[in-house]
């Protein structure tokens, strides 16, 4: 087998990225995503692209925050692993296969080839997630009207609520933050994401019961690709009443009232209560997301 050449791209040769087949439909999945040419890398063998990666971040980010497009040609898992391990950015890897990838033999083989490359490069599986996309044809979920929603300008109030919410959580990213730095780190990671989103800070809302007790929070947001459900969380002492649906319904209405023609969202596959609320609210699953994080020495 001939030697592998791995290199970055720029605006002059960015077209090379598109010469590899796209069995998982990544191009369609990223139709609203802007990838910078200089954050793309390819692996070539005999002049042909056999692996590719597109790292992504917001318009103001100086470095990528994730790698969300990664492909390897058939039989080129080792090339894909080298592409990943030699990259200057060691960030979380997202694979976004169609929801049918487990049942379709060709999709399963293509997805598992990418898994193998990632593991060889020192990445471990973190979580599998459902990706949702609400559109007007889904119908607006009815607002139950049980909670009072209010803005709150003080980040400290949200920080305290997030600590309490994450004290009992099924979210894999929050659990990873808790393991690394406790509840404070998990809460701060959420706040950092909310502030990173280009949507107004004034959109963040607290939800109160009729008795005036804080029940939860919801964060309607825009990420760089469009409107999204930024966060839904119910305080532990108020769980069991179905309030997560109330929060999701309010978040959806809030975004639509401000012009959203679609709303994206995600939840972990293992978070069965939240997945049930998305189904109840009319959010269809459009793809899955498998998150890997780099754990090799020194990363």
UniProtKB/TrEMBL annotation:
Entries under PROSITE patterns matching the protein: GNAT (PS51186)
Domain of life where this protein originates: Bacteria
Any single Pfam family the record assigns to this protein: Acetyltransf_1
Start and end residues of each N-acetyltransferase domain: 163-299
InterPro entries xrefs: Acyl_CoA_acyltransferase, GNAT_dom
Record-given protein name: GNAT family N-acetyltransferase
Species: Streptomyces thinghirensis
Organism phylogeny: Bacteria, Bacillati, Actinomycetota, Actinomycetes, Kitasatosporales
